[in-house]
Amino acid sequence: MDRILMQGLEFYAYHGVMEEEKALGQRFIIDLSLALDLREAGQQDNLTKTVNYGEVYATVREIVTGNKFDLIEALAEHLAREILGRYRVNSVTVKIRKPQAPIPGIFDYVGVEIEREQKRP
Fold this sequence. Notes:
This protein is α+β, with helices and mostly antiparallel strands. Helices cover about 35% and strands about 30% of the residues.
């Protein structure tokens, strides 16, 4: 399956369980992989035959910055559900990185990665 990749989408938002996270906010980095057949778009050089990644970016920004979730798992599920519902994709992989997670220790980030597919009747 072909894929549109969107890597390193960075937003400042207020997700987290701890009160400090809800009040102060922090950076979240989102990676997406959208699976769909890109053959027709490539052959015809036609935007209507693919997914407009500018529109996907706007959707992600709206969800990440316009909502507050305790868990990044819930944020990932919401992103996946909205992308599957709004765009012509077969599946989506959502990776969320939280580089300033409030845990003691040295680390690059903590995060989640989920993959969800369109429900078939």
